[in-house]
Amino acid sequence: MAGVGWRDAWQDALYGPQGFYRDERGPHGHFTTATHGTAGLVLAGALALLAREQGLTHLVDVGAGRGELLEHLHVVDPTLRLTGVDVVDRPQALPTAVEWVTSPGGRDLPDSLRQLSGALVLAHEWLDVVPCTIAQVDPRGVLRALDVDPATGAETPGLPVDGAELAWAVAHWPATRPGDRVEIGLPRDEAWAALLARIHSGLAVAVDYGHRGGARPLQGSLAAYRQGREVAPVPDGTCDLTAHVAMDTLDHDDLLDQRTALRGLGVSGATPPFALAAQDPKAYLAALERSSASAALTAAGGFGDFLWAVKRVG
């Protein structure tokens, strides 16, 4: 099969009619994220506190999966208005109070998601699955878009990168050494800007694995996962495809790692006092479980390395 641009192949593999994210099992059928289980409950508590501190009454989860984080949020703060946004229809297990909007997928947002007021708008691991052009410097030093065979993942050099994408690469991810790869983050910047434009007043937070200028991955970060294992990136719809986000290029007021963000919201990972084990064993085990989840959310080399790009609107 002839190769197509990585961006188009990636879009179809995740969001096309047979796309990975349309599978009835959802992402949870293949891997665990920070929104699942006790970690998700701890994260929900921190986000609910952030909303209260900012005087916000509506939380919108963009890229909500099957609503796992929203379920936790409904438990920790039933007074919050909650809205999920994803490519699938409303998950049946969601509490009736939780609203749901179906999205086209990728960078595109639903038309009905507009004029959000008093909202904490969360993009948790959304931008890393917004497809972008993947390019590589050829032997003559020319940055070329890579084409890919959707059936095998085999790559071939395509046309030279030009226009706005080349301008983005020169400004944010300059590469001149033959073989170096660039994941051109312009579609992520534009998707984030489009989301900000939907907010009348509130706070937008993008949370993702990412990097900053001066520390870009020379060979890129494109990766694929299936059933809990990393596999070769093949855009055939059978695996997740993700690439880290150039977080510093997003419009933001603050950019900080998740450890700092969550510790500022009371998530410490401290072990509960052992005396509690004798006084109330069940409470001790529950506290220990939350402590372990908090430690995982802030751990170096894991979820703690997420970056938070924060933008105040209105």
Q: What is the CATH top level name of the domain at 19-130 and 185-264 and 300-313?
A: Alpha Beta
CATH architecture of the domain at 19-130 and 185-264 and 300-313: 3-Layer(aba) Sandwich
- Indicate the structural class: alpha/beta
Mean pLDDT: 93
β-strand percent reads 15-25%
What is the CA-CA span between the terminal residues? 49 Å
Number of strands: 17
Give the biggest sheet.
7 strands, mixed
Shape category: globular
Instruction: Write down the CATH topology of the domain at 19-130 and 185-264 and 300-313.
Output: Rossmann fold
What is the number of helical segments per DSSP (H or I, 4+ residues)?
8
**Helix-strand string:** EHHEHEEEEEEHEHEEEEEEEHHHE
- Residues in helix, %: 25-40%
Rg, rounded, reads 20 Å
Major sheet: order of its strands? 4-3-2-5-10-17-16
Q: Residue ranges: pLDDT <50 for 5 or more in a row?
A: none
